[in-house]
Amino acid sequence: MAIWKKPISLDGLNATSKNTLVEHLGIVYTEFDDNSLSGTMPVDARTHQPLGMLHGGASVVLAETLGSLAANMCVEENRYCVGLDINANHIRAMRSGSVTGKATPIHLGATTQVWQIEITDERGRLVCTSRLTMAVLQHKGKQ
């Protein structure tokens, strides 16, 4: 059974990126299934650190982008999610190409969610692993 509680489509998800950091970095949502959301990000001048390698902060942006949007698609219309904590372990350096992140839930609770995001290179090798904790909140005035 799918975890999604809101209508989900790649066109709809990608439309949310307009005029945001997500669009600026070239992040694109590419796939979802019953239990995960994936997206890609280029490794180029937009995402490099001064030594010409993928910036660890860019990897964290990809991880939080995927986990946060996925979290918000897993709650009822009267609820929303915000980030509480994120960590990342940077495993492999990259200078060019693209990376793909895949966010999967570890815990989908009433007040918190925990997501694991694995970021891989074009050969499927692990570049970064991240864990994101989200708070589940209720819109004010909505029951």
What is shown here, in short?
This protein has 3 helices and 6 strands, in the order ααββαββββ. It is α+β, with helices and mostly antiparallel strands and 143 residues long.
Structure description:
This protein is of the alpha+beta class and about 140 residues long. It is about 20% helix and about 40% strand. The chain contains 3 helices and 6 strands. It has a 6-stranded antiparallel beta sheet with strand order 1-2-4-5-6-3. About 30% of the residues are buried. The model has no long low-confidence stretch (mean pLDDT about 95).
What does the secondary structure layout of this molecule look like, with pairings?
Elements: H1 10-15, H2 21-24, E1 28-33, E2 36-42, H3 56-73, E3 79-90, E4 98-108, E5 112-120, E6 126-138
Antiparallel strand pairs: 1-2, 2-4, 3-6, 4-5, 5-6
